[in-house]
Amino acid sequence: MVGDATLRSPSPDRNGDSAHGHHGIMPGLSHDELTAFLDEPGHLLRLGTLGVDGLPREVPIWFVHRDGALWFTPRAKSAWLEDLRIDTAVCATIDESVGSMRKLIARGRAELVHDLGNDDEWRDLYREIACRYTPERFADAYIADTIDEPRALYRLDLDSSATATWRMPTRDGENPLAVWSTQYYHRS
User: Fold this and answer.
1) CA-CA distance, 139 to 134, in Å (whole number)?
2) 42 in any annotated domain
3) In angstroms, rounded to a whole number, what is the distance separating the alpha carbons of residues 139 and 35?
4) CATH number at residue 10
């Protein structure tokens, strides 16, 4: 769900305090804002899995946002590919550390779209992912250099995942103290 209600601001009163009696709630991202954020090149997806050893694992990876889903590609020898084969539950975080500090957390089940050995069927998508992070010429050289290294293709559908978004209140008229979700307050 985009702009999770627990992360959106209740309507502030004239003093800038929310209806909950505190300084407001950190605003979420609208659907269009989230789409624009996910489509910007350069942001990494931090993918959390449950390791085959029972310990959590988090890896920063390349991704592309397409058709309401996050698409990503583990290599054949990636430890987290084995994690996904055992348990498809994931937590995906995409965030930024500057400006509005936009964030998305999506918890759901990753879907295997193409298993190892089917790379030719989706190589154009892999090139699209690589071009988000590197110049086109380098992406082509990178793909040519690793063409014999099999990858799998997974997707995380955002509509069927539990999602939360938020950003800092940096817009005109927003209370600059509205930086917490309601779950953190002990008073209502």
Assistant:
1) 6
2) yes
3) 24
4) 2.30.110.10
In which domain, by residue range, is 140 found?
A: 5-175
Closest CA relative to residue 93, chosen from 85, 82, 104, 84: 104
Model pTM score: 0.84
| pLDDT averaged per 10 residues in sequence order, the chain, 188 residues | 36 34 75 96 97 97 97 96 98 94 97 94 94 95 92 97 93 84 72
Q: Which of 173, 133, 126 has the alpha carbon at shortest distance from 149?
A: 126
First to last CA, the chain: 24
In this structure, are strands 162-166 and 103-109 parallel, antiparallel, or unpaired? antiparallel
Question: Nearest CA to 94 among 65, 54, 51?
Answer: 65
Report which secondary-structure segment, H or E, holds 65. strand 64-66
